[in-house]
Each structure stands twice: as structure tokens, then as C-alpha cells.
Amino acid sequence: MLSALLLTVATAACVVAHPMGADLEARQGGPKATVYSSCKNKGDVALTFDDGPWEYLQVVSDTLVKAGAVGTFFFNGNNYDCIYNAAEQQRVKYAYNAGHMIGSHTWAHKDLTTLSWDQIHDEMWRVEQALQRIIGVTPAFMRPPYGNYNDLVRQVSYARNQSLVIWDFDDGDSTGSSVAQSEADYDKALAKHPNSMLSLNHETYKTTAYQVLPYAISKLQAGGYKMVSVATCLGLQPYQHVGKPGTPDATWKC
Ligand SMILES: *[C@@H]1O[C@H](CO)[C@@H](O)[C@H](O)[C@H]1NC(C)=O
Questions:
Q1: Signal peptide: which range, if any (predicted)?
Q2: Residue 252 lies in a domain
């Protein structure tokens, strides 16, 4: 009884002492961003690539372009490497200039469901700022790391004018599937003749870049699918704003 009372007092004191707690309460029930996990347009496939920019971006991009396909890259700011390192800035530009869609995968690949309102904003704006600086765009779509989100994540996304993108097919590259398994999974999914597909892949695996992707593209083309960006397959705009890239200075760092 006494301990329950103490706990109540402690909890209340914590809310008062910690303004962010009160803030959170006030925001409960606020508008939530839309979560998309499938394409809308029949015959469209959106191939998405998470966790870069990294080493295999160029081959992924070239493979798509050669097939007349458009992909979507959800970039982190500081995951495999710092996005401001010269090689990574070049990769971001390479994908964007090749006509692929660029989205946010947030800054450091944290599980957003473990974070506060302010911490979620921080994970989001830092990569948005990097994309504004490097290619001049403010992304309209965010893929939450691990596909994990809750109401708070959706509320912050709404406040940032972004929608969430999950997937309806996972090639399994990030969870230990072999090339053969990933290819078999594509076969199995396509055997059901889905209207569309929103496919999760990672540009950070050599096997995905060199083996699974070429296989998937040939199967998708044989099935008559069109490989387009996430925005196109949803009939929406990819960016909130498109402006001019910035000029690098000492503040461009991780
Ligand atoms: C919000 O994003 C949409 C694109 O998704 C854009 O058209 C609109 O201008 C944005 N609104 C603001 C206030 O930036």
C-alpha cells in the first residue's frame, strides 16, 4: 500500500519534473501519419533498398537503370558510414541523378519505438537535413528502422509531413536468407500473381546487389510488372520540397 503510494508520487513527480513527459501527454491522440505497406496501382512493383548509402549502391542503381526500372533508396545518415563522407555523398547523388526515389530511413537506424517525441524528431531531422544539403530534397516518405513504429512515431511523422512505408514482401537478405532462399521467396510470391508488390531489400549486401536483384528483375519483367518508385506506385509526390543542394562546410559532419 505504502509502496504503491510512493510509486504514484514518484511517477507524478517525474512527469512534473520532466517537461517532455507533459508534452507527450498533450500530444497523445494527435493526428497520425499514414502507413503504407502495399502499392496502389495494379501491375506496379516498388523495389526498395534500405540502410545505405554504401558500397553496392552503384551496382544496384545501374542494374535497375539497365532494366528500365526505378527503385527507392531509404537512406540512413549514420549507419554503415557517415552520409557526409565524400564517397557516400557521391552515392546519394548517384542514385538521385539516376532517377531513383530517395526516402528517409532516419539517422542512426535506432528502433524508434524506444524513443521519446524529441528523440524521434532528432533521428528524423538529421537525415532530412543531410538530404536537403546533398541533393536538395525533403523526403515525403520515411521507412522506420526494423519496420517498427507506434502511435508516437506516426504522430511525429505527421508533424514532419511524412508518411511511413513498410512492405508486403521481404527478400530476407537482412535476416539471413541465402541467395537461393531469397530467389525462391520471390518465386513463391510471384506464383500468386499479386496485383502489386512493395518489396524490402538492402543495398548493403553484395549478394542482393549481384544475384538476387538481377534474378528478381528478370522474373518481375517476365510477369509483366512495372518497377516504379514508392511514390509512383502510390500515386503521390516523392518529396515535400525540391530545392538547391548546399555547399559543404565544417558543419557537414556526423
Ligand atoms: C507536405 O508534403 C507534400 C508532399 O507529400 C507537399 O506537397 C506539401 O507542400 C508539403 N507541405 C508542407 C507544408 O511542406
A1: 1-17
A2: no
